[in-house]
């Protein structure tokens, strides 16, 4: 639970896509959220996370990028919210286990 008055820092991956742009706009319109960073194709996700220290990452990337991104969020202790589809059952099971091991929801 966040302390009263503390804004949740949100990173958006896939920020230049249709849904990513909507998420960035929604964050700007929400008083208790703060845009901590935005990345898209060619951006350095890990460096952005380390520099900006978001609490949460919203990912609207591609099926080819999302698994790697998820592993990065978990390693960096960033809580992921995934809007990207395309992960298979085996990958989901592995990622759930890794999230549990690292204590990141």
SS elements, strand count: 4
- Poorly predicted tracts of residues: none
> Overall mean pLDDT score?
94
How would you characterize the largest beta sheet?
4 strands, parallel
Distance between the termini: 13 Å
- Any idea what the shape is? globular
Strand content: 15-25%
Total helical segments:
4
Helix content: 40-55%
Order of helices and strands: EHEHEHEH
Structural category is: alpha/beta
- Indicate the radius of gyration in whole angstroms: 13 Å
Physical arrangement of strands within the biggest beta sheet: 2-1-3-4
Task: Give the topology.
Blueprint: E1 8-13, H1 18-28, E2 33-39, H2 45-52, E3 56-59, H3 63-75, E4 79-82, H4 89-102
Parallel strand pairs: 1-2, 1-3, 3-4
Helix pairs in contact: 3-4
Protein described:
By secondary structure, the chain is of the alpha/beta class. Helices cover 44% and strands 20% of the residues. The chain is built from four helices and four strands. It has a four-stranded parallel β-sheet with strand order 2-1-3-4, sandwiched between helices. Helix 1 links the parallel strand 1 and strand 2. Helix 3 runs parallel beside helix 4. The two termini are 13 Å apart. The model has no long low-confidence stretch (mean pLDDT 94).
């Amino acid at each position: 639970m966040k302390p009263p008055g503390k804004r949740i820092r949100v990173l958006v991956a896939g920020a230049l896509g249709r849904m990513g742009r909507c998420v960035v706009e929604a964050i700007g319109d929400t008083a208790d959220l703060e845009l901590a960073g935005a990345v898209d194709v060619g951006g350095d996700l890990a460096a952005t996370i380390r520099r900006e220290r978001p609490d949460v990452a919203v990912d609207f990337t591609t099926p080819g990028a999302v698994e790697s991104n998820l592993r990065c969020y978990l390693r960096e202790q960033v809580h992921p919210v995934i809007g990207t589809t395309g992960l298979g059952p085996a990958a989901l099971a592995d990622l759930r286990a890794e999230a549990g091991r690292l204590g990141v929801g």
